[in-house]
Protein backbone atom coordinates (compact mmCIF):
# COMPACT_ATOMS: atom_id res chain seq x y z
CA UNK A 1 0.00 0.00 0.00
CA UNK A 2 1.39 3.39 -0.98
CA UNK A 3 0.01 6.53 0.61
CA UNK A 4 0.39 9.58 -1.60
CA UNK A 5 -0.70 13.16 -1.57
CA UNK A 6 -3.43 13.76 -4.16
CA UNK A 7 -1.31 16.16 -6.18
CA UNK A 8 2.26 17.42 -6.27
CA UNK A 9 3.28 19.92 -3.61
CA UNK A 10 5.51 21.80 -5.98
CA UNK A 11 3.92 22.52 -9.33
CA UNK A 12 7.00 24.03 -10.91
CA UNK A 13 10.40 25.19 -9.81
CA UNK A 14 12.19 27.45 -9.53
CA UNK A 15 9.68 30.19 -8.97
CA UNK A 16 10.33 33.62 -7.47
CA UNK A 17 8.72 32.35 -4.26
CA UNK A 18 11.11 29.36 -4.11
CA UNK A 19 14.09 31.57 -4.89
CA UNK A 20 13.10 33.98 -2.08
CA UNK A 21 12.56 31.10 0.35
CA UNK A 22 16.01 29.71 -0.46
CA UNK A 23 17.56 32.91 0.89
CA UNK A 24 15.72 32.57 4.22
CA UNK A 25 17.55 30.75 6.98
CA UNK A 26 15.85 27.88 8.78
CA UNK A 27 14.69 29.44 12.05
CA UNK A 28 16.91 28.40 14.94
CA UNK A 29 13.89 27.20 16.99
CA UNK A 30 12.96 24.73 14.22
CA UNK A 31 16.54 23.52 13.97
CA UNK A 32 16.72 23.15 17.76
CA UNK A 33 13.44 21.21 17.93
CA UNK A 34 14.46 18.82 15.15
CA UNK A 35 17.94 18.21 16.55
CA UNK A 36 16.54 17.67 20.06
CA UNK A 37 14.08 15.13 18.65
CA UNK A 38 16.84 13.41 16.66
CA UNK A 39 19.27 13.20 19.57
CA UNK A 40 16.70 11.93 22.08
CA UNK A 41 15.37 9.21 19.79
CA UNK A 42 18.81 8.26 18.46
CA UNK A 43 20.26 7.78 21.92
CA UNK A 44 17.11 6.58 23.68
CA UNK A 45 16.10 3.99 21.10
CA UNK A 46 19.31 3.39 19.11
CA UNK A 47 17.77 4.79 15.92
CA UNK A 48 19.67 6.16 12.95
CA UNK A 49 20.08 9.94 12.96
CA UNK A 50 19.86 9.87 9.16
CA UNK A 51 16.50 8.11 9.26
CA UNK A 52 15.25 10.43 12.01
CA UNK A 53 16.22 13.52 10.02
CA UNK A 54 14.43 11.97 7.03
CA UNK A 55 11.36 11.48 9.23
CA UNK A 56 11.49 15.13 10.30
CA UNK A 57 11.76 16.27 6.69
CA UNK A 58 8.88 14.00 5.72
CA UNK A 59 6.83 15.56 8.52
CA UNK A 60 7.65 19.04 7.21
CA UNK A 61 6.39 18.11 3.74
CA UNK A 62 3.42 16.29 5.29
CA UNK A 63 2.46 19.46 7.13
CA UNK A 64 2.50 21.32 3.83
CA UNK A 65 0.27 18.64 2.29
CA UNK A 66 -2.17 19.00 5.20
CA UNK A 67 -2.47 22.70 4.41
CA UNK A 68 -4.37 21.73 1.24
CA UNK A 69 -7.45 20.98 3.29
CA UNK A 70 -7.07 23.51 6.08
CA UNK A 71 -5.38 26.58 4.55
CA UNK A 72 -4.94 26.03 0.79
CA UNK A 73 -3.78 29.61 0.28
CA UNK A 74 -0.67 28.84 2.34
CA UNK A 75 0.40 25.82 0.25
CA UNK A 76 2.63 27.76 -2.19
CA UNK A 77 4.53 29.51 0.61
CA UNK A 78 4.74 26.32 2.68
CA UNK A 79 5.97 24.29 -0.28
CA UNK A 80 8.56 26.92 -1.11
CA UNK A 81 9.80 26.92 2.48
CA UNK A 82 9.97 23.12 2.57
CA UNK A 83 11.87 22.93 -0.73
CA UNK A 84 14.31 25.62 0.44
CA UNK A 85 14.77 23.77 3.74
CA UNK A 86 16.19 20.79 1.82
CA UNK A 87 19.33 22.86 1.22
CA UNK A 88 19.92 23.64 4.92
CA UNK A 89 20.57 21.76 8.14
CA UNK A 90 18.97 19.82 9.67
CA UNK A 91 17.08 18.88 6.49
CA UNK A 92 19.98 18.96 4.00
CA UNK A 93 20.59 15.63 2.31
CA UNK A 94 17.41 14.02 3.62
CA UNK A 95 15.46 14.03 0.37
CA UNK A 96 14.67 15.48 -3.01
CA UNK A 97 11.67 16.80 -4.88
CA UNK A 98 10.86 14.39 -7.73
CA UNK A 99 8.03 15.34 -10.10
CA UNK A 100 6.75 17.81 -7.51
CA UNK A 101 6.75 15.36 -4.59
CA UNK A 102 9.15 14.90 -1.69
CA UNK A 103 11.11 11.64 -1.86
CA UNK A 104 13.32 10.76 1.08
CA UNK A 105 16.88 9.48 0.68
CA UNK A 106 16.71 7.17 3.70
CA UNK A 107 14.33 4.30 4.27
CA UNK A 108 11.93 4.58 7.21
CA UNK A 109 11.48 0.76 7.12
CA UNK A 110 7.67 1.05 7.11
CA UNK A 111 7.59 -1.66 4.42
CA UNK A 112 8.91 -4.12 7.04
CA UNK A 113 5.76 -3.74 9.16
CA UNK A 114 3.29 -6.51 8.27
CA UNK A 115 0.87 -5.01 5.76
CA UNK A 116 2.81 -1.74 5.74
CA UNK A 117 3.91 -1.37 2.14
CA UNK A 118 5.80 1.72 1.04
CA UNK A 119 5.37 5.11 2.66
CA UNK A 120 4.25 7.96 0.41
CA UNK A 121 7.76 9.38 0.05
CA UNK A 122 9.58 6.05 -0.12
CA UNK A 123 13.01 5.94 -1.70
CA UNK A 124 12.40 2.26 -2.60
CA UNK A 125 9.16 2.82 -4.56
CA UNK A 126 9.91 2.76 -8.31
CA UNK A 127 7.18 5.38 -8.84
CA UNK A 128 9.27 7.87 -6.83
CA UNK A 129 12.44 7.49 -8.86
CA UNK A 130 13.48 10.32 -11.16
CA UNK A 131 12.61 9.58 -14.78
CA UNK A 132 15.55 8.88 -17.07
CA UNK A 133 16.05 11.48 -19.77
UniProtKB/TrEMBL annotation:
<dbReference type="GO" id="GO:0051537">
    <property type="term" value="F:2 iron, 2 sulfur cluster binding"/>
</dbReference>
<dbReference type="Pfam" id="PF11575">
    <property type="entry name" value="FhuF_C"/>
</dbReference>
<feature type="domain" description="Ferric siderophore reductase C-terminal">
    <location>
        <begin position="104"/>
        <end position="124"/>
    </location>
</feature>
<protein>
    <submittedName>
        <fullName>(2Fe-2S)-binding protein</fullName>
    </submittedName>
</protein>
<dbReference type="InterPro" id="IPR024726">
    <property type="entry name" value="FhuF_C"/>
</dbReference>
